[in-house]
Design goal:
five-stranded antiparallel β-sheet; Methylamine Dehydrogenase, Chain H; four-stranded antiparallel β-sheet
């Protein structure tokens, strides 16, 4: 269980309500970063890694940072790379980082690269003396059937291949799923596994994937698209190996407005094989009129070949949140997540969903951001560290400062 809240920033402060709120690092723009928009990741030593979409150095195109336990209950902040506004470098990182077994970090950047500035995949490698070196391992290019504007980070398989999505590009211009494979000599080969064909005004295929991918035990890939689907409100898709280099795609759920629309975040599995996720908006009408507060949904594996039954397990209302981000399960089967807006003060919050045992869920507010000392506007979901605390980022430190992140103390 989780009760109290901390926030990553430079100062410690008591919040004016039951939850203790402490700032471990406050991003200040340049030369520091600003606008952390992706979930944090943790390594086996308890270090936290993340990105800022802007700020850093003199170029203001984003950073990668590390927060390390300092032995006294706090964290030491270190900017390990500031992206360069230069031909070939990545710019504006926008997805969760992926650590590998050697301690390298991989990520997506929406802009930059040597293919016309439409995005890149980068790698950060630890060097002797505690430094890091960065290199772009792939640059996307528009106009060639390749994707562009990668989003949501990358995942890997057991062979070290990387998988991700692009928001645009591909044969129809509405996004792709791609694979990067090591070429054996230090380079990487890219292949487009699937090009989406849906759009805002046409289905039934998905369009514009924004969140990252997840694997199942059989090696199938699952993800969401912000647009497309039968009702044009977004979709959940499955991509399955079909032999050789071929993959087969199918839409397993199309949102219809009343059950949510415009999913943006990655999916998560529960312990028995159900898929869960968030839809950013919710409303009774199809896009572009799908607004309101968003949902948390569950997809159950089918007993036949027709679709995955979908259940809305929580509908957000203005008072308890608006625009939910990604979610995570704890070991007890509870769900934690954030909302970018809404709540009592309008600055979003951290929520918990607890299963009741009768197929329903109870929602409680773990923390409601006030926009004052504790800031607000979390742009990504949370992770659960090895210490049992919740960690995340937020876009507003306070009315006088731009950005920070948070964590929660166990009971």
């Amino acid at each position: 269980m989780h009760k109290n809240i901390l926030v990553l920033a430079l100062l410690l402060a008591a919040a004016p309500y039951a939850c203790a709120d402490g700032v471990l690092h406050a991003f200040r723009g340049s030369p520091d970063g600003r606008y952390p928009t992706a979930p944090l990741v943790a390594d086996s030593s308890g270090n936290l890694y993340g990105t800022t979409c802007q700020g850093g150095g003199v170029n203001n195109v984003g950073t990668v940072f590390e927060l390390s336990p300092n032995g006294t209950g706090g964290y030491a902040y270190k900017e390990i790379y500031a992206f360069q506004y230069a031909v070939g470098d990545a710019e504006n990182p926008n997805g969760a980082l992926l650590p590998d077994n050697s301690g390298n970090l991989f990520g997506t950047a929406m802009f930059g690269g040597s293919g016309g500035g439409v995005g890149a995949i980068f790698e950060l490698t630890p060097t002797a003396g505690g430094g890091w070196s960065e290199k772009v391992i792939y640059s996307f290019s528009s106009g060639t059937g390749d994707g562009f504007y990668p989003s949501g980070g990358v995942i890997s398989d057991s062979a070290g291949n990387l998988y991700g999505v692009t928001q645009n590009g591909g044969m129809a211009g509405t996004g792709t799923v791609f694979e990067l494979s090591p070429d054996g000599s230090g380079g990487w080969n890219e292949s487009v596994l699937y090009s989406f064909t849906g759009s805002r005004n046409a289905g039934p295929d998905g369009a514009a994937p924004l969140g990252g991918l997840v694997f199942d035990h059989a090696g199938n890939l699952f993800g969401t698209t912000y647009l497309g689907g039968v009702h044009r409100d977004g979709a959940v898709f499955e991509l399955s190996p079909a032999g050789g280099s071929a993959w087969t795609e199918k839409i397993i759920h199309s949102f219809n407005g009343s059950d949510g629309c415009n999913p943006e975040s990655s999916l998560v599995w529960d312990s028995v094989g159900n898929l869960y996720g968030t839809a950013s908006n919710q409303g009774a009408d199809i896009s572009p009129n799908c607004t309101n507060s968003g949902t948390v949904f569950k997809l159950t594996p089918p007993t036949t070949t027709v679709g995955w039954p979908e259940t809305t397990i929580h509908q957000f209302l203005a008072h308890d949140g608006n625009y939910p981000n990604g979610i995570v399960f704890d070991s007890a089967g509870d769900i934690y997540g954030t909302t970018y807006l809404g709540g009592q003060y309008g600055y979003g919050g951290v929520f918990k969903l607890t299963p009741t045992g009768i197929g329903t869920w109870t929602e409680t507010a773990v923390h409601i951001f006030t926009g004052q000392l504790d800031g607000g506007y979390p742009l990504a979901g949370v992770i659960i560290g090895a210490d049992g605390e919740l960690y995340g980022t937020r876009a507003l430190l306070a009315h006088t400062g731009p950005d920070s992140s948070f964590s929660s103390m166990p009971d």
